[in-house]
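hey team, just a heads up i'm posting the complex here instead of the shared drive bc the drive is being weird again. everything in one block, sequence lines first with there labels, then the predicted structure for the whole assembly after. its two chains so it's a bit long, scroll down
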Amino acid sequence: MPHTPGRPLHLRIALDAEIAIGPGKADLLEGIRETGSIAAAGRAMQMSYKRAWSLVEAMNSAFREPVVETARGGNARGGATLTATGDAVLAAYRRMTKAAEDAVAPEVETLKSMLSTVPGSDEQRD
Amino acid sequence: MPHTPGRPLHLRIALDAEIAIGPGKADLLEGIRETGSIAAAGRAMQMSYKRAWSLVEAMNSAFREPVVETARGGNARGGATLTATGDAVLAAYRRMTKAAEDAVAPEVETLKSMLSTVPGSDEQRD
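-- predicted structure starts here --
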């Protein structure tokens, strides 16, 4: 099963029946904060502008206050900033990931100790 | 973003570069334990037999001991049982999910309190 190297834990949480937050939305928020652009943030994740915009729209509708504001109000391709709510959502997601990582660490070590070890021939694992 | 109703937390953990465990593999193991069949377990998840078998094979190769044993040793369509290792992996995954849920609960409550509330018109959330 493909997974992002270097990111051992992948966490997605449904906040209600309509909205979930996971690594995709969190990374997008972070990218928007860094680049000031929905398009640039999406591009850096190999995500279409349409997809990036739809994730932002989903979050903006779900939360009482928008998470991202665009300079021209509409779906302008430049000039996007995280709001205080966006900052708070992103920070909460990062804290949740860290808390979950810490919570599962002992079980992860146990599972790792049960893996077969085939030194120098990882491809036999496929 | 689609997510399984009634299962608020979706957790996937990479154990090394080759193998990750998430809800798909865990539910498959549970289904095999319940039905005694890889095919039946996959079907219950709307998963093709090929896909179910490939997930079992990936786990069987990754762990020192197989997680599932089939009656005829090969990819027989009936007679599959969880091994002690399979039981242990499934139990560890369920414990990790519970531990992660507990760990993120306070942040989840904070995020939920930030959601817009549109009583009786959830469709406005989309």
